[in-house]
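User: Hi! I'm working on a homework problem where we have to compare a predicted structure to a textbook description. Could you give me the structure for the chain below?
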Amino acid sequence: MIILGIDPGFAITGYGVIESQGNHLKMLEYGVVSTKAGTPFTWRLLQIRNQLNDLLAKYKPDACAVEELFFNSNTTTAIQVAQGRGVAITAVADKGIPIYEYTPLEVKRTVVGYGRAEKQQVQQMVKVMLKLDKIPKPDDAADALAIAICHSFSSLMAKPI
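Assistant: Happy to help. Predicted structure tokens:
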């Protein structure tokens, strides 16, 4: 199964593509879609959609896992990130790919075994589980890989959104 993990945003959207066969995981690609501040917001959203469409065409994933949003303060940023997440979800949905969402707590619990794990612990486990030489950078890409890994171990019980 090919899984696309997405850590949503509008300035930076992390992505990670893995192949999962049973308990064997293989990293295929990871990175970020970065949009420049000062660029009209609609153009930033289009850039996210277009780059995700390129990834979808290249890997033809069987599933997409996206992080559920959690904000506790800045509502303006929350709305913009939610719009970026919406663009990512519609790009995937347009291809008929099932989409699953996971909370940060679920991702940490699945990848590390502890829902309150520190970011560094999650990144280290991503490196180990995917047999990488180093921790993926930037953090958004490592987070997207963790989300994809979470789905690989949760897919039998998960329901698409």
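For your comparison, note the following. The helical segments are 41-59, 75-93, 104-111, 119-129, 139-154. The beta strands are 2-7, 12-21, 24-34, 63-67, 99-102. Good luck with the assignment!
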